[in-house]
């Protein structure tokens, strides 16, 4: 199934249908696949996901194993903040963010899959949170007012959006002057094999929808953000038993030995304007999570 002939709306419908299905899958299955799509690996447990279970505010019912980072861990959320989570799924990042904002803050999750919104609302009701709201909507055209959020977070969602510059423009619009975002996403260095790049299921699986890292960061800069910082970076390795569904043996060997890299990055950027917080004024490349020199959240190095 090729993605090249699909319009933006058709791609969105592909993702919407797939994520309606994913909402009923178990977190274990999703963690062994590519964002719940692309088949299940029998060899690797967590292909993309990071472990949320140690974070305050974590709720296992809301964790579908679909993320590729921990953006809320790096988001510098303060008590009383208004936070928007893009592609909020069953609500996991929203509930972690709510712990940071406290009851005096406000958290809004936006998702365009009705089954995810329903699941998230049920989770919020069970937890008794009256300051966490889930709203049905397209993150390319957010159903919120201008200059409303202190912080925007998102976890492995922008890959699924055909018009990434439009989303960054929308993030810029809804943030207050001086507000910031922390987003975990998948980016590339080098070109994916054609069979992976053209498969609509792998688009829904956060891989075929990924763009080059440099281009991704340029989109952020062009919209007008500043203090762009890569807070965390880790390589994503697709196991052979998943690759074999799309590539032959020779293509798998070529892919594994070639120069293509798939990475999860967590990116911070700030909207210009008055703020009480000072951040670095450049793009900062931090080392991989596997390197002992990596920044720790709150250490001040990022």
Automatic annotation (TrEMBL):
It is an enzyme of class 2 (transferase). Its EC number is 2.1.1.137. CDD domains: AdoMet_MTases. Keywords: Methyltransferase, S-adenosyl-L-methionine, Transferase. Signal peptide: none annotated. It catalyses: arsenic triglutathione + 3 [thioredoxin]-dithiol + 3 S-adenosyl-L-methionine = trimethylarsine + 3 [thioredoxin]-disulfide + 3 glutathione + 3 S-adenosyl-L-homocysteine + 3 H(+); arsenic triglutathione + 2 [thioredoxin]-dithiol + 2 S-adenosyl-L-methionine + H2O = dimethylarsinous acid + 2 [thioredoxin]-disulfide + 3 glutathione + 2 S-adenosyl-L-homocysteine + 2 H(+); arsenic triglutathione + [thioredoxin]-dithiol + S-adenosyl-L-methionine + 2 H2O = methylarsonous acid + [thioredoxin]-disulfide + 3 glutathione + S-adenosyl-L-homocysteine + H(+). It holds the Pfam family Methyltransf_31. Residues 77-222 form the Methyltransferase domain. GO terms for biological process: methylation. The keyword Phosphoprotein does not apply. One of its GO terms (molecular function) is methyltransferase activity. It comes from the Bacteria. InterPro entries: Arsenite_MeTrfase-like, Methyltranfer_dom, SAM-dependent_MTases_sf. The keyword Transferase applies. Transmembrane segments: none annotated. Belongs to the methyltransferase superfamily. Arsenite methyltransferase family. This is Arsenite methyltransferase. It comes from Rhodohalobacter sulfatireducens.
